[in-house]
Structures are given as C-alpha cells and as structure tokens.
Amino acid sequence: MVVIGALLIIPNFIDAGRYKPEIAKYVLEATGRTLDLEGDVRLSLFPWAGLTFSDLRMGNPPAFTEKDFLAVKSFDVRVKLWPLLSKQVEVDRLVVIEPRLFLVTNKDGKVNWKFGGRPAKTAPPAGSGPPPETAPPIASLLVGEISVQNALIAIIDHRRESRREVSGLNASLRDVSLDRPVRLTLSAAVDQKPLSAEGRFGPIGRNLGQEGVPLELTADAFGHLRLKARGTVANLLVAPQARIEVEAAEFSPRRLFAELGRPLPSTADPRVLERMSFKAGVTADTGAASISDALLILDDSKLRLTAS
Questions:
Q1: Is the N or the C terminus of the chain less surrounded, counting Cβ atoms within 10 Å?
Q2: d(Cα 172, Cα 183) in Å, to the nearest integer?
C-alpha cells in the first residue's frame, strides 16, 4: 500500500514542464532543429505509467521557408509498468491528435526529412552464416487502442511549385495482441479525394511474425477504384517478405483520371478506356519484387504478364 500510495502521490510533486528547456536543448543538439512544447506536460505512474503533452512543434532547418516540420496538437500514452519486468507489454492507449507533417523540397533540391545519417553497420564476413537466433523482445502484447486522428501530410516541392496533401487522416488499431487478428481502419482525403481502407492482419504469434502473418485488406480509392489484397507477410522484424494476391474490380480509367484532375487524351473511339480490371500475385522482400499470373483486362483486350 505504501508503494501504491507513493506512485499516486509522486507525480503531483514532479513538475514535468520544468524539463521542457532541457528536452528542447537535447533535440537541437541531436537534430539541429528547434522544439517547442507550448502546452502542458503531465506524468502519471499508477495504475498506468502515462505521458501526455500538447502543442508540440519541431522546426525546419534555416534553408526552408516553412516554419514547421512537425506539429502535434496532443499526444497521450499509458502503459502498465509492472508487467514490463516479465516482457509483457500492456498499453491502454496511444493516441496522437492532429499531427501535421510537412515534407518539403526547396528550390535548391534539399529536403527537410533528412536528419543526417549514422555510420553504416559493418556487414558480416562472407560465409559467416545467418545471425544466431535471439529470444523475442516481448512475451505478450495487449493494446487497447492505437490511433491517429485528423492528421495532415503535406508534400511541398518548391522546384515544381506543387503541393499535395493527405488530409483528414484517421487510422486506428484496436484490441491489439499477439494471439488474435488485429482489425485496422483508415480514412483520408488525397488532394480532397476520398480514400478509405479496412482489414485485419495476424495473429502475429509469439515468434513476432517470423512465420507468415495473414493479411486481408480492402481499399476504396476516390470513389472509382476498389482494391482487395490477401496474403501473408513473414519475418516482420528482420527481413520482411510478402506474398499477396491483389485484385481490382472493374472500373473506368477515363473516369478515374478525370476525377484526379488528369484527364486521359482524346481517342478516335470515345468508348475505349472505359472498362478495366486486373489481378496478380505479388512476391516481395527488401531487395526485389515480382509479379506472377497477372491478368489485365482493358475494354475487350486481355493481357497476361509476369514481371520482376
């Protein structure tokens, strides 16, 4: 009871906000970028170890006219401490509200998402064989909610004087564990055109995806294109490998490109480019990808192909 009482009382005597200058100084030294935490920073220790902050802003280097690289309205995470001692991760929630990410290319061709690289790891000698197996970093995982709410990703290229946006991005994972399939939902607007997806993956298993993890996903793009994907992803933590069947229901390329503001050229026969569908098997890892048993139907034509 004394320990529990201390965990409840201690955060009341810790002013987490007093550490904001030290955090900003560390970020500036590590990245060369300013960090402002204008809102409150709160800590809790029992029954959940929690961190909450609001109104975070990370600046851009001086070579960029945009002030912010990243802005977050609020962030909230709550984790149980005691189970961590036995590699059991229990998270009540991890919620990010209104993050704003600005990916900028300036007129000199410099990009603002490069933070400076670290020395490359030395490759193992040829013939040394695969690295020895290590114990999984966690024994179990339980997460009530992971969500990103009303996010914005802006891609700005000053060389081409272009700006593209993914806005109103909402993504969530609920009831996440190693032993059950995880359901996911996503919705957004790409340059004000609707995009949504839903599906499930897993269970990941106690070996953290070393074997194949089932994946099913359905996406609806711009109200004209509906995609389905089903397959497996393996070796999630080391060298991801995917085997996925992809299928697109019949749609009109002419209407789709018109919706995207890039109409197709006029043709002698205005009835062509009105019906298209495809399906294919995709195999990919970090070094290569291949397409097999692909069937593309365009109007009255059929094309079978493979590629790598």
A1: N
A2: 8
Determine the average pLDDT of the residues in 114-127. Answer: 55
Q: Are 222 and 198 in contact (CB under 8 A)?
A: no
Secondary structure class of 256 (helix, strand, coil): helix
What tokens appear for 175 in the block?
């009831």
Q: Are the C-beta atoms of 47 and 37 separated by less than 8 Å?
A: no
Q: Has residue 163 got a pLDDT over 90? A: yes
* Mean local confidence (pLDDT), 241-260: 91
Per the DSSP assignment, residues forming a β-bridge with 133 are: none
Contact 139, 88 (CB under 8 A): yes
Give the helix, strand, coil percentages of the chain, each rounded to 5: 15, 50, 35
DSSP H helical ranges for the chain: 2-13, 20-31, 253-259
Distance of CA 140 to the CA centre of its chain: 22
Distance CA 229, CA 308 (A): 19
CB 165 within 8 A of CB 114: no
- Cβ within 8 Å of residue 132, ≥6 positions away: none
pLDDT in tens, 27-79: 888 888 899 988 888 888 767 788 888 999 999 988 899 999 999 999 999 99
- State the pLDDT at residue 236: 78
The pairing of strands 276-284 and 225-234 is unpaired
